[in-house]
Specification:
The complex is a heterodimer of chains A (101) and B (201). Chain A has helices at residues 4-24, 29-54, 58-88. By secondary structure, chain A is an all-alpha fold. Classes of the chains: A mainly alpha (101), B mainly alpha (201).
């Protein structure tokens, strides 16, 4: 019998995988962005779970807004990444240091 | 075990396996494709939770648009995989620690929900004959109309920002400039000279 904790376990495991990826894939910012998408997906999964088990549609509406903001974030981040690659020829996090004072 | 339970465990297993694949595969193109698989399985879990519209949205918006954008950028940026081996090794203990602590804390919270009376079955019950998409539309255009407009503005700003960031002016290329052409007046281009006979211009 699948209950609410099952879905929440799944969401937290997905979030932990994404968080681990942030540390493990430091050399490629694109994969870093994908790990961020994983974490956002985990948050969305938790939102939908609570919306279903609390009987409130507002959680699903919030997931729609999260999707919107995540899509905007991905577009802007990839544009910045493209600019960075043109200037540096590298997308490693270690080379993203030009703003250091 | 009901078919819905079986579907949940299959979807959850593939979801976590493909998410781990995103993190651990060396090839960024494979990572994008595994992320597509992750989103498909998440859409399946959404359907199990009664959020069919969000599941479709996830597939259309994420798999259809965002992941294709990722794939484009991955293929535009030539990243040498050999050059970036073993760079994340130093962060491995820290990453495991942070992910483990996060997982443990959230699992503890999830366990605390098991004791609640409503945890056994979803309380989500739509009125008779109302689909998930219709119910979402009813609240989205009434209760949430202002956040909805703001979401549209955010998308507009993101679009303008992405275009403004990536557009580049190429001074070495000759292009037609329609504005210059229509702004051109006869006085800019020609001069009327009265020439008296036998004296020359």
């Amino acid at each position: 019998m699948v209950t609410q904790p099952h879905f929440l376990f799944l969401a937290s495991a997905l979030f932990a995988v994404g968080a681990f990826g942030l540390f493990w894939r430091r050399h490629n910012v694109i994969v870093l962005l994908m790990c961020l998408e994983l974490m956002l997906l985990a948050a969305n999964l938790a939102f939908v779970t609570f919306a279903a088990y609390a009987g409130d549609l507002a959680g699903q509406v919030f997931v729609m807004f999260t999707l919107t903001v995540a899509a905007a974030e991905a577009a802007i981040a990839l544009a910045i990444l493209l600019l960075f690659f043109r200037g540096r020829g590298s997308i490693a996090v270690e080379s993203l240091s030009s703003l250091r004072g | 075990m009901t078919p819905a339970d079986l579907a949940f465990f299959v979807l959850a297993a593939v979801l976590l396996a493909s998410a781990l694949g995103v993190v651990f595969t060396r090839n960024p193109v494979h990572a994008v494709l595994l992320l597509v698989l992750t989103f498909f399985n998440a859409a399946g879990v959404f359907i199990l939770l009664g959020a069919e519209f969000l599941a479709m949205l996830l597939i259309i918006v994420y798999v259809g648009a965002v992941m294709v954008l990722f794939l484009f950028v991955v293929m535009m940026l030539r990243v040498d995989p050999a050059k970036m081996r073993a760079q994340g090794r130093a962060a491995l203990p820290l990453g495991l620690l942070v992910a483990g602590v996060l997982m443990a804390e959230m699992a503890a919270v999830a366990l605390s929900f098991a004791a609640l009376p409503g945890a056994a079955s979803p309380a989500f019950a739509l009125p008779e004959g109302v689909t998930d998409a219709r119910a979402l539309g009813r609240v989205l255009y009434t209760d949430f109309v202002y956040p909805f407009q703001v979401a549209g503005l955010i998308l507009l700003i993101a679009m303008v920002g992405a275009i403004a960031l990536t557009q580049r002016a190429r001074p070495d290329i000759k292009r037609q400039s329609v504005a210059d052409q229509t702004a051109r007046r006869p006085g800019d281009a020609m001069e009327i000279v009265k020439v008296t006979p036998r004296t020359g211009a």
